[in-house]
Automatic annotation (TrEMBL):
Keywords assigned by UniProt, alphabetized: Cytoplasm, Cytoplasmic vesicle, Endoplasmic reticulum, ER-Golgi transport, Membrane, Metal-binding, Phosphoprotein, Protein transport, Transport, Zinc
Superkingdom to which the source organism belongs: Eukaryota
Stored InterPro entries: ADF-H/Gelsolin-like_dom_sf (IPR029006), Beta-sandwich_Sec23_24 (IPR012990), Gelsolin-like_dom (IPR007123), Gelsolin-like_dom_sf (IPR036180), Sec23/24_helical_dom (IPR006900), Sec23/24_helical_dom_sf (IPR036175), Sec23/24_trunk_dom (IPR006896), SEC23_SEC24_subfamily (IPR050550)
Name of the protein in question: SEC24 homolog C, COPII coat complex component
Species of provenance: Prolemur simus (Greater bamboo lemur)
Record membrane topology: Peripheral membrane protein
Pfam families associated with the record: Gelsolin (PF00626), Sec23_BS (PF08033), Sec23_helical (PF04815), Sec23_trunk (PF04811), zf-Sec23_Sec24 (PF04810)
Compartments it resides in: Cytoplasm, Cytosol; Cytoplasmic vesicle, COPII-coated vesicle membrane; Endoplasmic reticulum membrane
GO annotations of cellular component type: COPII vesicle coat; cytosol; endoplasmic reticulum exit site; endoplasmic reticulum membrane
């Protein structure tokens, strides 16, 4: 990494740096992040080259020297700085809440356990019994996947999924039955495929092929299946290391591989290659298996599979097939990036650099642009004109994770305190001071990099410029030299012009029959007793500033007074759920350490109080309403933790009915399954957002609970939804408790507003994520944690300039968990281009997929699924066709040419298309689909990457002593060896697949049983055995879990067992039972679509 920047003066940064909240806490519950010691902050050196060589840890922090509050004569922050939504807050947070607090209708004295609780006055009473109730300089080296038309086998059927190569590559999985259930006409007879392969294999090892290929530095030819032994016929080495760019057509007119450097006639080598050494390696031209003459070369793909849920008719035309080993492999791309880019830090000093992939471990050095952990873009070089953008159809979007957790080695954003004057901003567009602002007139004024407005520099902020026009203090100030930093907000940025109170957490527990019966309530109460000691803290605070409160409910609500002065907690019942109010103010929200005894007593008693309940009905909206009113009364922001079991059918606002109807699937009305059944929750969510009330929902359903409706409030308030279907303590407690611990402890900002500003020429036009918007620019978030992302799409509104590039500034105003009002700023500069090739060379497919999945998942609310799928396919085809037409060298139409950095677009897109939301299998419930839909909405790029293309790790191939994660294999059944054991994970699910011929010693070591047949299918915990293999596998499982934001429950699956169907669902390169195409088939289909566009 060579960043040519001159060494600046190296004064340390100003104020003492608060430790990033995510890493200072004592650990609890085994959270990986929280166990890290406080991050030592190195002195900030600015973008000096030496910076890269010095490990951050070794740097000592110098005393504060800058950033001191300027005189208060500074210009006051503009009133608008506070964002529009606070006007609303003025109205809603007034004193009127006190009035409400005095109303006690419908409350009831607590007493007779079995008496129905209805409209009696609420009375404070001593506690008693309860009531019932995922490039090459694209030398245009695109990839060519030629029709790879096979010599027509005697009979029809699409050839694909080379059974033979499977067997030969990884040793033996029988193919029988694998494709048995596929729709007729799509599944080739196995024997044929094998026969075909038999012919092909020798061709693949043709010398011309091998010699024409120059192995990239990253490692020489690799076997497609890294785990398999080399077998005869495999010697060819499969596709070269860095992905076959060309799976060249065997057609006679095709140039021999290697000469097919489809170098684009136009574009010279990319300007950015010096910064992207890794990519250069991949720019080899064409290669790929050489094949014999293909009689059918060049013909369209008559046998293209269908892409709907309906199988196509049998294909009469000669089948053609692609060798799966010759088409772009996600595993290869990931491995190459790791090898090429995982060794050096990613330094953000240069505009428009494409960061390493999300699957690569790398460190980031902030030298003026936000870390890719905070912002990732679909492209780092955007077209100058909207015409170009329209032509390419590449969406311009940024996936922003404003409060992203950082690895311990990276410093969290510095906090800048400009005192009473507040942060310096542009007078016109309100953009915050940042490294791209241009100081002029000797430093007395600055020109805004976003809107070009000339602003005066306030006297206290004045500084001289050096001979290059840079302020001499630039490297003393985070806001002048870093991509990410924070400002302390002044009172002008606070609701009602008042600094906020510390936030509160309210635990709201369903105590209806189902919750009690499953043991949930007892488990939860027991856990809370200790978990409350680990609420989020800030800086070096000894204890959390967050106050807590407790509510239990079934069809009525029970509030608890846990004031420290009480000997015992007191319960108050509110049965008038139609007009919810909070029956007590004092004693409801308390400090944990002060009220510890009373809280412990309460948590001890709750499970017993409701032990005999027969109440099965529950309310839901009133519970949220109550929590929100309590926060309002306490004049603070906060989070509600709801633990809920059933469809809220009790008579109350937000009452729901069971409207699940599987018959709607594949009809125009399918969209209704994703829409909330009442608008009540939207209204409620709006109120919550105004109060800064974030709602996290833990669901424990035994049947349909209408997740689509229940998740509306969490979704709009920046909350999270967790779902544990058919919860049983013995099976699910580990997962639930792990999620709960993480959720309670995680760093979160409250009452937040996010605004994304852009330089002239583009603007943010669309947003995706868990938030609420009352206007077109401000993203309102009642809460925002380190896991949540907001995806923003940009469109042109003017012409961009190659020289000045394009700038983004994301400003997040939020209240920290200690009650401090802050602004977090992330800046990112992108390049702009007049050549389409530059666009295609700087795209990031993983981010594109993240955006496209979110767009599609939102689309299902309004459009038939088929239309949504078709739109995705069309857009993808247009993107690739535009590349082919404008960037790739002329070549035969029979070749599929993909831009290097988009070569995985088809495979990943196919995964999105056949996901449960867009093409559900028979076993997927409506609730599961709604759940996943809402999860994906807030996922970051790493999460969508593994979610759509799961990781499949062979466990016994690598040496037992190896401590590194085994290299993954492609998610296809043909990659499985029946003599091995694999882990598969997608961020939500975790499977351990055991091959039927696995060695007895392995079985014994992992399961402590003597044979394969004795392994319990469906097992969720591996026995703790004292042998290297057992320890290694369990450690790997722990490590995978630690990488994900949700606990993945393990499911042991035996080959050929019933449960295997569940597992196969995640082998995404294969055809799916729900009609989803195999990767090979989809690639052929995509090629056909592209050819149609080009013809
Ligand atoms: Zn401006």
């Amino acid at each position: 990494m060579n960043v040519n920047q001159s060494a600046p003066p190296v004064p340390p940064f100003g104020q003492p740096q608060p430790i990033y909240p995510g890493y200072h806490q004592s650990s609890y519950g085994g959270q990986p992040g929280s166990t890290a010691p406080p991050t030592p902050y190195g002195a900030y050196n600015g973008p000096v080259p030496g910076y890269q060589q010095t490990p951050p840890q070794g740097m000592s922090r110098a005393p504060p020297s800058s950033g001191a509050p300027p005189p208060s004569t500074a210009q006051a922050p503009c009133g608008q700085a506070t964002y529009g939504q606070f006007g609303q807050g003025d109205v809603q947070n007034g004193p009127s809440s006190t009035v409400q607090m005095q109303r006690l209708p419908g409350s009831q004295p607590f007493g007779s356990p079995l008496a129905p609780v209805v409209s009696q006055p609420a009375v404070l009473q001593p506690y008693g019994p309860p009531p019932t109730s995922a490039q090459v300089t694209t030398q245009l080296a695109g990839m060519q996947i030629s029709g790879a038309v096979a010599p027509a086998p005697p009979t029809s059927g699409l050839g694909y999924g080379p059974p033979t190569s499977l067997a030969s590559a990884s040793g033996s999985l029988p193919n029988s039955g694998l494709y048995g259930s596929y729709p007729q006409g799509q599944a080739p007879p196995i024997g044929q495929a094998q026969g075909y392969l038999g012919v092909q294999t020798p061709q693949r090892s043709a010398p011309s092929q091998a010699s024409s290929f120059t192995p990239p530095a990253s490692g020489g030819p690799r076997m497609p299946s890294v785990t398999g032994p080399l077998l005869p016929g495999q010697g060819f080495g499969g596709p070269p290391v860095s992905q076959p760019n060309h799976v060249s057509s065997p057609s006679p007119q095709a140039l021999p591989p290697g000469t097919q450097m489809t170098g684009p006639p136009g574009p010279p080598p990319p300007m950015h290659s010096p910064q992207q050494p890794g990519y250069q390696l991949q720019q080899n031209g064409s290669f790929g298996p050489a094949r014999g003459p293909q009689p059918n070369y060049g013909s369209p793909y008559p046998g293209a599979p269908t892409f709907g849920s309906q199988p196509g008719p049998p294909q009469p035309l000669p089948p053609k097939r692609l060798d799966p080993d010759a088409i772009p492999s996600p595993i290869q791309v990931i491995e190459d990036d790791r090898n090429n880019r995982g060794t050096e830090p990613f330094v953000t000093g240069v505009r428009g650099q494409v960061p390493p992939l999300v699957t690569t471990n790398f460190l980031v050095k902030d030298q003026g642009n936000a870390s890719p952990r905070y912002i990732r873009c679909t492209s780092y070089n955007i077209p100058c004109t909207s015409d170009m953008a329209k032509q390419a159809q590449v969406p311009l979007a940024a996936v922003i994770k404003p409060l992203a957790r950082l690895p311990p080695e990276e410093a969290s954003p510095y906090v800048v305190d400009h005192g009473e004057s507040g942060p310096l901003r542009c007078n016109r567009c309100k953009a915050y001071m940042c490294p791209f602002m241009q100081f002029i007139e000797g430093g007395r004024r600055f020109q805004c990099c976003f809107c070009s407005c000339i602003n005066d520099v306030p006297p206290q902020y004045f500084q001289h410029l050096d001979h290059t026009g840079k302020r001499v203090d630039a490297y003393d100030r985070p806001e002048l030299s870093l991509g990410s930093y924070e400002f302390l907000a002044t009172v002008d940025y606070c609701k009602n012009n008042k600094f906020p109170s510390p936030p509160a957490f309210i635990f709201m527990i369903d105590v209806s029959y189902n919750a009690i019966r499953t043991g949930l309530v007892r488990l939860l109460c027991e856990e809370l007793k200790s978990l409350l000691d680990f609420l989020p803290r800030e800086g070096g605070a000894e204890e959390s500033a967050i106050r807590v409160g407790f509510v239990t409910y079934n069809k009525v609500l029970h509030f608890y007074n846990v004031k420290s002065s009480l000997a015992q907690p007191q319960m108050m019942v509110v049965s008038d759920v139609a007009d919810m109010f909070v029956p007590l103010l004092d004693g409801f929200l308390v400090n944990v350490s002060e009220s510890r005894a009373v809280i412990t007593s309460l948590l001890d008693q709750i499970p017993d109080m409701f032990a005999d309940t027969r109440e099965t009905e529950t309310v839901f909206a009133p519970v949220i309403q109550a929590g929100m009113e309590a926060l309002k009364a306490a004049e603070c922001a906060g989070k509600l933790f709801l633990f809920h079991t059933s469809l809220p059918m009790a008579e109350a606002p937000g009452k729901l009915k069971n409207r699940d109807d599987r018959k709607l699937i594949n009809t125009d009305k399918e969209k209704t399954l994703f829409q909330p059944q009442t608008g009540a929750y939207q209204t409620l969510a709006k109120e919550c957002v105004a109060q800064g009330c974030c709602v996290d929902l833990f669901l424990f359903p035994n049947q349909y609970v209408d997740v689509a409706t229940l998740s509306v409030v969490p979704q709009l308030t920046g909350g999270s939804v967790y779902k544990y279907a058919c919860f049983q303590v013995e099976n699910d407690q580990e997962r639930f408790l792990s999620d709960l611990r993480r959720d309670v402890q995680k760093v979160i900002g409250f009452d937040a507003v996010m605004r994304v500003r852009t330089s002239t020429g583009i603007r943010a036009v669309d947003f995706f994520g868990a938030f609420y918007m009352s206007n077109t620019t401000d993203v309102e978030l009642a809460g925002l944690d380190g896991d949540k992302t907001v995806t923003v799409e940009f469109k042109h509104d003017d012409r961009l300039n190659e020289e000045s590039g394009a700038l983004l500034q994301c400003a997040l105003l939020y209240t920290s968990c200690a009650g401090q009002r802050r602004l977090r700023i992330h800046n990112l500069a992108l390049n702009c281009c007049t050549q389409l090739a530059d666009l295609y060379r700087n795209c990031e497919t993983d981010t594109l997929i993240n955006y496209m999945a979110k767009l599609a998942y939102r689309g299902v609310l309004n459009s038939p699924l088929k239309a949504v799928r078709d739109t995705l396919i069309t857009q993808c085809a247009q993107i690739l066709a535009c590349y082919r037409k404008n960037c790739a060298s002329p070549s035969s139409a029979g070749q599929l040419i993909l831009p290097e950095c988009m070569k995985l677009l088809p495979v990943y897109l196919n995964c999105v298309l056949k996901s449960d939301v867009l093409q559900p299998g028979a076993e997927v419930t409506t609730d599961d689909r709604a759940y996943v839909r809402q999860l994906v909405t807030s996922m970051d790029v790493a999460e969508t990457n593994v979610f759509f293309y799961p990781r499949l790790l062979p466990l016994t191939k690598s040496p037992i002593e190896s401590t590194t994660e085994p290299p993954a294999v492609r998610a296809s059944e043909e990659r499985l060896s029946n003599g091995d054991v694999y882990l598969l994970e997608n961020g939500l699910n975790l499977f351990l697949w055991v091959g039927a011929s696995v060695q007895q010693g392995v079985v014994q070591s992992l399961f402590s049983v003597s044979s394969f047949s004795q392994i319990t299918s469906g097992l969720s915990v591996l026995p703790v055995l004292d042998n290297p293999l057992s320890k290694k596998v369990r450690d790997l499982i722990d490590s995978l879990r630690a990488q994900r934001s949700r606990y993945m429950k393990l499911i042991v699956v035996k080959q050929e067992d019933k449960l295997e169907m569940l597992f196969k669902h995640f082998l995404v390169e294969d055809k799916s039972l729900s009609g989803g195409a195999s990767y090979v088939d989809f690639l052929c289909h995509m090629h056909k679509e592209i050819r149609q566009l080009l013809s």
